[in-house]
Inverse folding.
């Protein structure tokens, strides 16, 4: 039996990109043999300043959303990162294993810091080390993520390899990304070359998992497209990123291949396609939003789920990180 680990930042509301790229895979993986550990990464969230009250609220909101998507605390461990100190302790060790050059190559750091590299937090720079610690603190070997996290997972493997080499052990295993091919990268509704993101300044660029039917309908109607009709093959979508994105979303949400979708809509304009897409999205997303609001009505129950999750998570991570501390030469606590 293997262990699965994944995380999501509790900043803003999860988007359709988070859901199609990662969360629905988390829910499916719970049905399998492997242990599942899912984490609200509040320590990663503060690499950019977060209003403290908003962070608390958004952490609960993300917990509620994960439960609403189908994460079952009886089958999976669900907790917030800061509640298990093993993450921070292992991250420090990894800060001392990872090399500056490795981190400088991270495209997400370069994107997020932009021209502002002198001004961003040092936490943002070492973000991938904490992410490696999240995974390796559980000896997890399978990590379900969207495409954008792949480089971070490669780095987590490099860190594990260097740790094992430096200390002459085979302690941290290799990890394998689990990426859903069809929806690894859901793009913005306003610009088909940018990923859909909870931090995009424009709310029109994304479907939030708590959007109402009216909002979803309006966002899909206004989603950027082009004037040509839908083609009958995928090849003709290569130069049409917005159309390709919408076809991909349609396919994923209705359980078809993009090819099947195009077979159905070939030659038609975007009008009928968009209204069926909105309908399918509403049927899928609206109940999740409603269940999220129900979970949020009982914060005491929600907090209890997270506390229980943290306790279960610590029971796994504590001995692993204590052993890593022993291996590097720290005296026992
Ligand atoms: P975060 O919070 O940005 O996103 C959570 C998950 O959603 C996926 N995702 C997408 N997939 C497809 N299309 C999109 N437009 C899209 N946007 C987001 C992400 O790939 C991710 O799987 N660094 C991570 C959180 C993290 C983590 C970890 C993940 C911290 N520690 C350990 C795995 C293992 C992040 O910021 O995810």
């Amino acid at each position: 039996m293997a262990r699965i680990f994944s995380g999501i930042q509790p900043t803003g509301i999860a988007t359709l990109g988070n859901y199609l790229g990662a969360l629905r895979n988390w829910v499916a993986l719970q049905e399998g043999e492997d242990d599942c550990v899912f984490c609200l990464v509040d320590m990663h969230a503060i690499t950019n300043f977060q209003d403290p009250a908003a962070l608390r609220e958004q952490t609960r909101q993300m917990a509620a959303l994960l439960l609403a998507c189908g994460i079952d605390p009886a089958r999976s461990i669900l907790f917030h990162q800061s509640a298990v100190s093993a993450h921070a302790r292992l991250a420090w060790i990894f800060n001392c294993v990872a090399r500056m050059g490795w981190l400088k190559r991270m495209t997400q750091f370069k994107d997020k810091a932009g021209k502002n590299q002198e001004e961003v937090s040092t936490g943002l720079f070492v973000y991938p080390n904490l992410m490696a610690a999240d995974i390796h603190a559980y000896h997890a070997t399978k990590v379900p993520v969207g495409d954008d996290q792949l480089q971070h997972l490669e780095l987590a493997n490099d860190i594990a390899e260097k740790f094992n080499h430096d200390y002459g052990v085979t302690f941290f295993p290799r990890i394998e990304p689990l990426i859903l091919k069809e929806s690894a990268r859901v793009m913005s509704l306003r610009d088909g070359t940018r990923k859909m993101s909870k931090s995009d300044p424009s709310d029109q660029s994304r479907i939030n998992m708590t959007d109402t039917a009216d909002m979803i309908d309006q966002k899909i109607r206004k989603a950027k497209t082009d004037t040509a009709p839908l083609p009958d093959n995928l090849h003709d979508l290569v130069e049409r990123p917005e159309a390709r994105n919408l076809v991909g979303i349609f396919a994923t949400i209705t359980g078809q291949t993009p090819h099947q979708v195009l077979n159905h809509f070939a030659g038609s304009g975007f009008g009928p396609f968009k209204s069926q897409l909105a309908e399918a999205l509403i049927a899928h997303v609206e109940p999740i939003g409603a269940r999220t609001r129900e979970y949020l009505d009982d914060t005491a129950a929600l907090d209890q789920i997270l506390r229980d999750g943290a306790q279960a998570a610590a029971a796994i991570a504590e001995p692993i990180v204590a052993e890593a501390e022993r291996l590097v030469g720290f005296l026992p606590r």
